[in-house]
Amino acid sequence: MSSADSPAHQQLATLYSDHHGWLQSWLRGKLGNAGDAADLAHDTFLRVLVARNAAAIQQPREYLATIARGLVTDRFRRQAIERAWLETLAAQPEPQAVSPETRAIVLETLVAIDRMLDDMGTRAREIFMLAQFEGLTYAQIGARLGISITTVKKHLVRALTHCLILSAE
């Protein structure tokens, strides 16, 4: 029996045929664009293919919508980061010509940093940003947030450890 004839393949094919049109229509409503909806519907089914056995899905539309919502959020977040970066470039005194390769690398880096910060706890993220981007000392951070220097150190260690783990991956 070939892999195309396997029960898992048949279950995924059935899931796709039963719900792809609905998912793409649902995404079109969220995104207002048929092309982006088609891309994200495809990406949603790729996630299902990689992540799980289609037979184990009890509520297919809810499951697919949950995956698709995450992909929509990622797309909007990436677009916001890209807009902010382009606005920053446009505000520079001399327009900078950026190659498509450099642009892709910078955007991927910014998205990775955004994900890393989003994965931190709220307090650790706030302390990390105050230390790294505003250059505040432990005492200044503690005073601003109304917490002890020990608490600042604990959260900063947690944030930096998180960064090291992610960079090692």
Automatic annotation (TrEMBL):
<dbReference type="Pfam" id="PF08281">
    <property type="entry name" value="Sigma70_r4_2"/>
</dbReference>
<feature type="domain" description="RNA polymerase sigma factor 70 region 4 type 2">
    <location>
        <begin position="111"/>
        <end position="163"/>
    </location>
</feature>
<dbReference type="InterPro" id="IPR036388">
    <property type="entry name" value="WH-like_DNA-bd_sf"/>
</dbReference>
<keyword id="KW-0804">Transcription</keyword>
<dbReference type="Pfam" id="PF04542">
    <property type="entry name" value="Sigma70_r2"/>
</dbReference>
<protein>
    <submittedName>
        <fullName>RNA polymerase sigma factor</fullName>
    </submittedName>
</protein>
<feature type="domain" description="RNA polymerase sigma-70 region 2">
    <location>
        <begin position="15"/>
        <end position="80"/>
    </location>
</feature>
<dbReference type="InterPro" id="IPR013324">
    <property type="entry name" value="RNA_pol_sigma_r3/r4-like"/>
</dbReference>
<dbReference type="GO" id="GO:0006352">
    <property type="term" value="P:DNA-templated transcription initiation"/>
</dbReference>
<dbReference type="InterPro" id="IPR014284">
    <property type="entry name" value="RNA_pol_sigma-70_dom"/>
</dbReference>
<dbReference type="GO" id="GO:0016987">
    <property type="term" value="F:sigma factor activity"/>
</dbReference>
<dbReference type="InterPro" id="IPR039425">
    <property type="entry name" value="RNA_pol_sigma-70-like"/>
</dbReference>
<dbReference type="InterPro" id="IPR007627">
    <property type="entry name" value="RNA_pol_sigma70_r2"/>
</dbReference>
<keyword id="KW-0731">Sigma factor</keyword>
<comment type="similarity">
    <text>Belongs to the sigma-70 factor family. ECF subfamily.</text>
</comment>
<dbReference type="GO" id="GO:0003677">
    <property type="term" value="F:DNA binding"/>
</dbReference>
<dbReference type="InterPro" id="IPR013249">
    <property type="entry name" value="RNA_pol_sigma70_r4_t2"/>
</dbReference>
<dbReference type="InterPro" id="IPR013325">
    <property type="entry name" value="RNA_pol_sigma_r2"/>
</dbReference>
<keyword id="KW-0805">Transcription regulation</keyword>
